Amino acid sequence: MFTKRLAVFFWGLAGGVSLLFLILRPMPVFNYDFENFFASDDPELAFYNEFRSVFENDNDYLLIALGNEPDVFDNHFLEKASRLEEKLGKLDNVTDIKSLLSAEERVISPFGVRKEKILEWENAESLSDSKKRVVADSALVRSLISEDYRHLLLVLRNQQLIDKSSGDSLYFEVVEVLRNSGISEFQVAGKIKAQAEFVSLLQKEFSFFLGISLLLILGWLYLIFRSIWGMLVPVLVLGIGFFWSLAFLLLTGGELDVLVVMQPPILLVIGLSGIVHFMSSYKIKLQEGMPKDSAIQQTFSELAVPVFLTCLTTAVGFFSLAVTDVISLNRFGWFTGFGVLWMFLAIILILPLALYIFPPLKPNENKNISGFWQRLLGFWFLFIVRRRWMVHLGFVILSIGAAIGISQVKTNGYILDNLPTDHPLIKEFEFFDQKFGGSKPLEFHIGIGEDSGSLLDYEVLQELAKLEEFIRQTFQTGTLLSPLTLIKSLNRAQNQGNSKAFIFPTLAQYDRMAPLLDRFVDSQPIPLLTADRRQGRISTYMADVGSLKGEELEKQLDDFLANEISAKLIQVKMTGTSYLIDRSHRQVTAQLASGLGIAFLCVAILTGLLFRSWRMALIGLIPNMVPLLWMGGVMFLFGVDLNLSTAIIFAVAFGIAVDDSIHFITKLGAERKKGKSLIYGLKRTYLTTGKALVLTTVILSSGFLVLTGSDFQITFYAGFLIGMSLIFALLADLLWLPILILPLTNMWKRTQ
To answer: Do 334 and 248 form a contact (C-beta atoms < 8 A)?
Structure first.
């Protein structure tokens, strides 16, 4: 097995795979699709899809704030802003722009209906009158103008469900128009901007982490093997394996998004760990005097199955994310899991012949260093054996404390929680939260009850008025748009445009406007009612308060609807993209638990089959619960919330951490087959495998800690927490696993 002839065949196979991928020419595609974070099987998503087919998508907009000192009521500023709005309105894929600059209100008089501009600036007198009108109109302040009157808001609506390419083009055109407008102060927020900014960051992050991972690998390889070819061969293997995994991802419809961008360090470091196991064993056999060809054959015969199992269990950890119905998590789990298997395939197909071709590694290890490892590991083995109950008690107490801590970790997420809090994109969204009541879309579907025939019935509108006031006060929203907005606008129109008449009308006033109602409603540019008046929407914005606070607000809404609103008159349901994201954050906790349960079961089955003992499989899993529990405790101590971003950390950490246990138990099995007693076999395993476990843990954890240099919070926390979990796993495998195995002497005899 693993003869030179077979190794040559493997190289031919590897060359064929590489050639096939090169012919197919996979092209990198960077994307950040906001809706990939929706739970695809959530019935609320189906409801929202139906909702937006009737009305509109709630996040196809850009918020543009134009600022001026001391306020916006300046002729020159308003003229430049007006020209700017006109240019923006002519851009492709812009469907509508709402602002004070072009806003008109209807005035109904005995002579008919006329339209009047809200804001006039032709001369000082008209500007002064307009300023008084705007300042007095509560419906405009914090809606289209800030409370300090320093900023005007333009709400630019783009083509519905615009594709990524068109959205990027539109955003860059908008920015170009703004920069050439002569207005120096402006802020922009919205989906197409967020997507463009995220993709730009993704490209930078992918290149950065690919480069830093290669430098890290070269550094470790030099420290371990101290030779040029000892560096070049692993880099060749890792490079080909990473190319295969990336090509597979791209050719099967995958894209490089905010999760997949973490793949370079993950795959390269996992692959490096496997290579180090092979080359370290090969080097030891050479040092023992074994001929080169025999050392290669024996190394790969002994380690091929264990390394495959470690890669498979790592892949299983990633595959556990596939149980979630969040598209981004699902894809990350599948593609990264398969990526790990591609890396193993590259190692098996390429590394053996490379070792045959290049000269053997020189036994250059310093004897003092070797003796240091023997003394250190020997000391710790005697310590844990003599004080086993102290070790048991320590791990149990710490794990119970961590379990209590993890139970206190909050499930909470934000729309832009992947970015650091000081990122300019978050600052811009916070600006709109403070100045205009929010940047996060908030939507409610309203329908008629069994005792009503139309949403424009007076009794229904009364219920709607109570509901709007509750939403405004509880959710702290900006201006609301709803069927009631149309009624208030018509009431103002019938009162000569008096802003004080923008209120819910009395029954007599409502009866007076009835003949004009249908025509007035049908002429509105924003869809708020269906033609049959049986469905409508309440549309507004609010600050991004997080999914935890959002859940509290939803419960308050449910209580209000149950106690204050007549269900026989009106039916109300919260919906929208922000609502769906908040639900995904909350649902991912249960899905994570089920995914980890499946991963535990799969690993237990694999280890049980390998060692022909279910008891050994369970013993092997116990220390691998430690890194997950302790990592949860660290999350509690550092105030890290559980959400769509951090949910992946547990699955990844488990899949990688279990590798050390498999290597340890496999080595122990090999020692037992040589006829050694369990205690002596444990000692030999501890002294020989312990160093490899420490080295691979240092390599893996340092590789993940590199991710803490990311601008994305998900990448930062993944690097920090997974790096910590690998250290916890090492402690569990070196300090707890040996004394968990000690009582199994009789069981082990039966499996030999």
So the answer is: no
